[in-house]
Amino acid sequence: MAEKIISPEQPAAMGIHYHYYSLNYMLASQKQAGYQSIELFCAAPHVHMTAEGIANRAELIQEIRNSGLRVVCVTPDNCMGPWQYAAAGAETIAQSKRYFRHALELAADLDCRQVACHSGWGLLDEPREEAWKRSLDFMSWYCEEAKKLGLTLVMESLRAAESNLVNSLPTLQQYLKELHCDNIKPMIDTCAMAVAGEIMEDWFRAFGSEIAHMHFVDGTPYFHLAWGDGNRSLDGYMAAIKANHYQGALTQEITDGRYYDDPAKADAQSYRILRSYMDS
After folding, report:
1. Shortest CA distance to 54 belongs to which of 21, 79, 76, 78?
2. Backbone phi and psi for residue 244, each to the nearest 5 degrees, phi listed first
3. Total H helices, total E strands in the chain
């Protein structure tokens, strides 16, 4: 029997793999699986957010509140749309600021204190340092906007195929050192971490108790899979979590297309496996 290490509130469901299902279906399925917490991914079909605002905002907030699920993190879609943290050009930057400001305001209205982010990316035919500076400038603004609302930003690394900026533990360390904001904290993404050849102990040695959030999924090491479908060591991860007294969320950022037909099954599978490590 697995050692009891985490609390029932720590596993948090996410919604990327519910791409062909409604918000109501997603929330009901995740609650039925046993989750008490969610990380709200702000993308269609559940959250229609653009630089101009959020469609049916009041109804969205009410439906989430009615679900009884606690929102532990808000994550604006920041990989597929035109808005990103290292955007170039005055109009694109202005629209990106409006877009991400809506995510902050939504988090505040949901009584959620964390908003996820990353560095964005630069074009491959421009000097990397130019995109790096744009990202730092944008993130400095973003931190100030978050601070006005009493929010903390949690920042992950990406895979090298996704970003030429922050794509490893050392580059995240460098970025946060240069940014020098007190309301942005590091977060672990187990996929990006594993692809970079890093282990969880590396991150805890680097950041200690500053680690504020995790995207906590199985993989091979690529992919964001439900637990049991990859080859990552869950026992090893749990040992690191226990040794470092981590009490933050463990978001199930399941994204692979194999789950799109039956996302509820994937959520239930992950929760069932994590349940054996829960203290009650």
Report:
1. 76
2. -105, 10
3. 9, 10
Pick the closest to residue 105 from 43, 57, 139, 156 (CA basis).
57
Residue type, 179: L
Contact residues for 54 (Cβ-Cβ < 8 A; gap 6+) = 42, 47, 48, 60, 102, 106
**pLDDT tens readout for residues 168-217:** 999 999 999 999 999 999 999 999 999 999 999 999 999 999 999 999 99
Q: Model pTM? A: 0.96
What does R_g of the chain's alpha carbons equal in angstroms?
18
Instruction: Write out the H or E segment, with its range, that includes residue 215.
Output: strand 213-215
What are the φ and ψ backbone dihedral angles of 237, each rounded to 5 degrees?
-65, -45
d(CA 63, CA 261): 23
> DSSP labels for 221-274?
SSS-B-TTSS---HHHHHHHHHHTT--S-EEE----GGGSS-HHHHHHHHHHHH
Containing 98, the helix (H) or strand (E) segment is helix 90-109
